[in-house]
Amino acid sequence: MPYKDAKKQKEYSQKNKDVIKKKHQIYYAKPEIKEKQKKYNKEYYDTPKGKANKLKASTKWRNNNLEKARKYAREYAKANPLKQRKMWLKRKYNISLDSYRILLESQSGKCAICYNENDNKRHKYLCVDHNHDTGKVRGLLCHSCNATIGYAKESVSTLKKSIEYLEKYL
């Protein structure tokens, strides 16, 4: 630090910004420094304080660059659909993609209610049916059957009354 006085140091830094930046680029481009920095970052970001700071910094960047962040997210999702599906299944239903596939295989790739294969162009996958109170996965349903249960608010009596109503007019 050329100056002990903070004000003079700031003036010096602003005046010589380009020179300082170039020196930093040269210094941090050295392989041994890169490796040292990489090791330090790994150790630091594994600590609770480092994780918190990383989250804080990334949140700040995202808030300041919302459009850019959304663009990156869209591009990533488009480039990694399987990874996105895995993360969504884990986050929403706490099941892995393998668990979904096993469930799908056990149902022979068909809806658990109507036994139709999912041929809906708009809805690419069978829906994961789950209890909204416990979160427990019950099976896989086509979009129509899943919506029917959802609109009935998972009420067995409402669904029975719906059946009675339909049978009355057949």
Question: Structural class, from helix and strand content?
Answer: mainly alpha
Q: Count structural domains.
A: 2
Mean pLDDT: 90
Q: Report the span from N to C terminus.
A: 89 Å
Task: Kindly describe this structure.
This protein is mainly alpha-helical and 170 residues long. It folds into two domains: 6-74, no CATH class; 93-168, 3-Layer(aba) Sandwich (His-Me finger endonuclease fold), CATH 3.40.1800. The chain has helices spanning 6-15, 17-29, 31-45, 48-64, 66-79, 81-93, 97-106, 143-151, 156-168; strands spanning 127-130, 137-141. Strands 1-2 form a two-stranded antiparallel ribbon. The mean pLDDT is 90.
In summary, what is this structure?
The protein has 170 residues and is mostly helical. The chain contains nine helices and two strands, in the order H-H-H-H-H-H-H-E-E-H-H.
Break the fold down into its secondary structure elements and pairings:
Blueprint (H helix, E strand, L loop, with lengths): L5 H10 L1 H13 L1 H15 L2 H17 L1 H14 L1 H13 L3 H10 L20 E4 L6 E5 L1 H9 L4 H13 L2
Antiparallel strand pairs: 1-2
